[in-house]
Amino acid sequence: MSAAVLAVLAVVPVANAQPPKFPDVDSYPAVDLAEYQVIGAHPSMSGWVFSTPGGLKCQSNMIADLGVSCTGTIAGAGTDMNSVAVSLTKPGLIARYEQSPDDHSYPLLPTGSKIAPGNGVVCAVLADDALACRAKKPDSWPKDTQDPPDRHYGEHGFVVQPSGSWSY
């Protein structure tokens, strides 16, 4: 068994279309990506890391298909929810995982800013206790980019906030 992930205990339902209340993450000013970038031995181990004022620790992968995942207390979700993730190919997921504590230090993504590396994944800190992330086909891709045979590209996201966290 993996030390990082032992079991998924809960999942929130997802919808097929973006809810009308999803925040306009594109309207937030972008941070300098260099301060958040990590380089691994392979693109799947490279990307950007950040923390939020609310205590989430997030990893956004260089490969859009792998998306972004965050760990920590998921405010406004079910009891003990500690993980949220979304990607270009998978709807948002809020879950509880048994995991080892992450004691790495991640640079802070300030309230009122976004991280937008150009891979189709954008995350914005809406308030000290709120984060929204969206994954969709990058604008740099041709509009007629075909889905791979084994998965479907779509627009997916999540919002973490005390008044109610949700995903699509």
What amount of the residues lies in strands? 25-35%
The percent of residues in helical segments reads under 10%
Shape: globular
Number of domains: 1
Low-confidence stretches: 1-16
Oligomer: single chain
- Structural class category: mainly beta
Q: What is the mean pLDDT? A: 87
Total count of strands: 12
Task: Please summarize the sheet with the most strands.
Answer: 7 strands, antiparallel
Task: Supply Rg.
Answer: 15 Å
Largest beta sheet: what is the strand line-up?
Answer: 1-7-6-5-4-3-2
Q: What distance lies between the first and last C-alpha atoms, to the nearest angstrom?
A: 29 Å
Number of helices: 0
The secondary-structure element order is EEEEEEEEEEEE
Features:
5-stranded antiparallel sheet, single chain, 7-stranded antiparallel sheet, 168 residues, 30% strand, signal, mainly beta, globular
